[in-house]
Description:
Layout: E1 4-10, E2 16-21, H1 24-32, H2 38-41, E3 47-54, H3 57-68, H4 72-78
Amino acid sequence: xxxxxxxxxxxxxxxxxxxxxxxxxxxxxxxxxxxxxxxxxxxxxxxxxxxxxxxxxxxxxxxxxxxxxxxxxxxxxxxxxx
Length: 82
């Protein structure tokens, strides 16, 4: 079972935020409630745009770093355009 997830959310201002979690639904709800990352607190509501699941935390964290290193255009392609 894949317990480690990397997700991309779109904030209300159109920006994209990438994060790691073990519970995607809970984490997105936290972001929406203004209790997530400092970056997303003033940018609610958020919309889940992309999720990838991994067997290990290290694999998920590596992928999170890789996604964060992508350009805006590459991120948009990853989430299916915007």
